[in-house]
Amino acid sequence: MKQIFTLLISFIVFSSCAQTKEEPVRGTWITNVASEALRSEKNIKEAVTLCKQKGLNNIYVVVWNGGVTMYPSKVVESYIGIKQHPIYNGFDPIKTIIEEGHKQGIKVHAWFEFGFAYAYKDTTKVWSQKYPHWVGRNSKGELLNKNGFYWWSAMHPQVQQFMKELVLEVVTNYDVDGVQGDDRLPAMPAEGGYDSATLALYKQQTGKEAPADYKEPAWLQWKADQLSAFGKALYTGVKAKKPACIVSWAPSIYPWSKENYLQDWPAWLKGGYADYVMPQLYRYNIAAYETVLKELNEQVTPEQKKRVFPGLLTSLGDGYLVKPEMLQQMIQLNRKYGFEGECLFYFECLRKLDKIY
After folding, report:
1. Cβ distance 33 to 61 under 8 Å?
2. Which residues lie below 8 Å from residue 294, measured CB to CB, with a gap of 6+?
3. What residues in the chain have per-residue pLDDT under 50?
4. Counting C-beta atoms within 10 Å of the first and last residue's C-beta, which end of the chain has fewer, N or C?
5. Contact at 8 Å (CB) between 152 and 130?
6. Cβ neighbours of 22 (radius 10 Å)
7. CB 159 within 8 A of CB 203
8. Could you tell me if 159 and 186 are in contact, meaning their C-beta atoms sit under 8 angstroms apart?
9. How many angstroms separate the CA atoms of 116 and 135, rounded?
């Protein structure tokens, strides 16, 4: 009788585990810009509660922006002497939001928003003065600057080492459910690649001089492949430290992502170093949204689709707010095309929209 009871319990436990299905992502990005959500413990608790009330199950919280971290970082301090964004004054919003998220059954991911961009408008020049050999260059030898963002050379080994240290610091020290790079990690403006380290690496690997045309197909593909290799190495490093940690990417739409920022993310899915991909399908009208959603649908296999969750533009710091009916239409279209979840940019929309799910 005892053996029968043991077998019965084992069967029930096995059946329960076998039937457990990972919930589709229903998430949002929480920023430190145009938002007060991370400014205090009270604000964080309110933000997480609001996410829970709106039916969200994943939070992607910024940890790296403007060349500094939102949490106290020994890694960044060792490089530039700045431990944390000064606005937090020793308060650790990342620790707090992870604890609060877990209390309410929400997964929390560390979002490395700035990736390989070290500054926006670079008013302080902290990084570029201390590490001038890290900066990216275009074909004219100018600093790699696109839309106000200043970029490192993403192929420089010291830059890659810093980024690995930064990500693994968070994975090691925090109970995060995942880490995420977006349209700046792994990424670099396609105009880049003309710093001395990258030119030397290209010559070493191909025996050729880099062409002056940054869009020359073989040269562009080589640069994209270097970033894909970094993404794979980072994925492997995270999994070695914490196997259950989710590694996700939120790139731009393809092939624009590759042509402009060297993000060949279909290769990341195919190569097995993307647990989730959340392409930024940011559009202002429903017809344009369905167009890019159809393209995405054709770019991924049915099996890959289970790991792809569109990013939706729902609000901006300039005051833009998606119309409620358009949000519902986007979610309905996602389901129509077989995408079971999505992520909203950005959190502040939740304060103004009555219904998400």
Report:
1. no
2. 337
3. 1-20
4. N
5. no
6. 9
7. no
8. no
9. 10
pTM for this entry? 0.93
> Letter for the amino acid at 305?
K
Cα 178 from Cα 2, distance rounded (Å): 42
Query: Going by CATH, does the domain composed of 24-351 fall within 3.40.50.2000?
Result: no
For residue 231, give the nearest of 201, 254, 265 by alpha carbon.
265
Q: Three-state DSSP class for 324? A: helix
Note whether 157 and 197 are within 8 A (CB): yes
Measured CA to CA in angstroms, residue 81 lies from 37, 67, 74, 126 at distances of 26, 12, 9, 10
Q: Contact 145/151 with Cβ under 8 angstroms?
A: yes
Q: Between the CA atoms of 273, 29, 145 and 69, what dihedral angle is there, to the nearest 10 degrees?
A: -90
Q: Amino acid identity of 312?
A: L
The residue among 119, 110, 120, 156 whose CA lies nearest residue 136 is 156
Question: Are the C-beta atoms of 86 and 136 separated by less than 8 Å?
Answer: no
If we measure between CA atoms, which residue out of 24, 25, 22, 27 comes closest to residue 51?
A: 27
Q: How many CA atoms lie within 13 A of 147 on its CB side?
A: 6
Please give the backbone phi and psi of residue 218, each rounded to the nearest 5 degrees, phi first.
-65, -40
Residue 287: count of CB within 10 angstroms of its CB: 7
> One-letter amino acid identity for 143?
L
pLDDT reported for residue 21: 59
Pair 137, 192: CB distance under 8 Å: yes
- Reported as a single tens digit per residue, the pLDDT across 323-340 is 999 999 999 999 999 999
Domain-wise residue ranges, the chain: 24-351
